[in-house]
Design goal:
By secondary structure, this protein is an all-alpha fold. 46% of the residues lie in helices and 0% in strands. It starts with a helix and ends in a 9-residue tail after the last helix. Bound molecules: heme C.
Length: 147
């Protein structure tokens, strides 16, 4: 009787580990991912060119980092569909992680529509998209942008 109880307890523990493990792996964000995401956002994709407000000298304003901006430029030949304001992407408010990853991998948002130009239609690989989302999610939408 005791042996049965012990082994069934062991099975229960094992089962719960199996159930927890994939969930944990899928939602865990590593420091390396955040570092890579910050590098991709700041130095490769230059998201701040459009998503951070700039001062009169054209310098990004640190306290407004990635909070969205009125775009300071237009095109010579303005396309009919054009957004003159970018979104606040610090913390990715309103975005589920997986939707944001898909958006950066396909260009399609959670409503299956692309964002309007000049938001680039990124088709990143999963690794890069996940790193960017990990970094953006690590930012507070309302902090003073010290990151
Ligand atoms: C050339 C300018 C530009 C660059 C560079 C840019 N964005 Fe955007 N982004 C925009 C504009 C403008 C919008 C608003 C589009 C709209 O309202 O349809 C936008 C919208 C978004 C949205 C919201 C989309 C939606 O439909 O709600 C996300 C998320 C986003 N950008 C993430 C990023 C990330 C991450 C990067 C860098 C990897 C980046 N953007 C680089 C201009 C830009």
């Amino acid at each position: 009787m005791k042996i049965i109880t012990l082994s069934s307890l062991a099975i229960l523990i094992l089962l719960s580990l199996v159930r927890i493990a994939p969930t944990f792996a899928a939602s865990s964000t590593t420091a390396a991912q955040i570092t890579r995401g910050k590098y991709l956002v700041e130095e490769v994709a230059k998201c701040e060119d459009c998503h951070t407000e700039h001062d009169e000298k054209g310098q990004p304003i640190p306290s407004k980092k990635l909070r969205g901006a009125i775009l300071p430029f237009k095109m010579f030949s303005q396309p009919p569909v054009w957004a003159d304001q970018s979104a606040n992407i610090a913390g990715l408010p309103g975005w589920k992680r997986e939707d944001a990853v898909r958006f950066l991998m396909t260009g399609l948002a959670y409503n299956n529509l692309p964002a309007r130009p000049p938001m680039p239609l990124y088709k990143l690989n999963r690794e890069d998209a996940e790193a960017i989302v990990a970094y953006l999610k690590s930012l507070s939408p309302i902090d003073q942008g010290k990151n």
